[in-house]
Amino acid sequence: MALKDLFNLTGKTALITGGSRGLGLQIAEALGEYGATVVLTARKQHELDEAKAHLQGLGITAHVYANDLGAFDTIDPLVERIHAEVGPIDILVNNAGATWGSPTVDHPLEAWMKVMNVNVNGLFLITQSVLKRCMLPAGKGRIVNVASVAGLQGNDPRMAPTVAYNTSKGAVVNFTRALAAEMAAHGVTVNSICPGYFPTKMTKGTLAYGEQNILEATPMHRLGSQEDLKGLALLLSSDASAYMTGQNIAVDGGAGVV
User: Which residues, if any, are the signal sequence (predicted)?
Assistant: First the structure.
């Protein structure tokens, strides 16, 4: 097989949660450029419509479905609808996420549950549904979880405390390992991308608070760009990574090595 064919996603359908903006939309651009039909979910219909128009302008086939991963009873019907209207899901990118900044002793339980429900529970339920309905019957699939370097380490005391977010992303890191081992015999690979700091709507407050500290702690002395996740997302979604599973890969400008 030619090397370029290992990355070819023509005929594949990729579901990307939280795909209407930020990292999710960047990943959609990458997978769509290499031939995938992309399906985006997010909470806000107008943002999904804008993302769809953007992707179609790039020549990418895109479908959008408004959905809240925190509303658990909507998840399986969503996957069923996508399966019926678009086709079986070959690639699942679990990108949707929530965060909350608060000292631990003051952290509201409601906010803790919101972060866990989106970042862990909703991620589990949509993964379960896609596996059951699409990947296990097909005997193949690619699952790419968007975790975070926050799931690989503690929190710099110079930054705003985000104990719920760090905890949830630590759960995603080990969920990736555990599910990868379970699915290895079924033709499904499970890996995660652990981004460092990228300018997005979610990180706006963190960057306003501590961007200089972040840059000083990053050997490359810059934030992630709009292109920096695309290559890895394509690799983990394609046959080029067929012998990779259970890996949690940091994309952080070297911050995790110092």
Answer: none
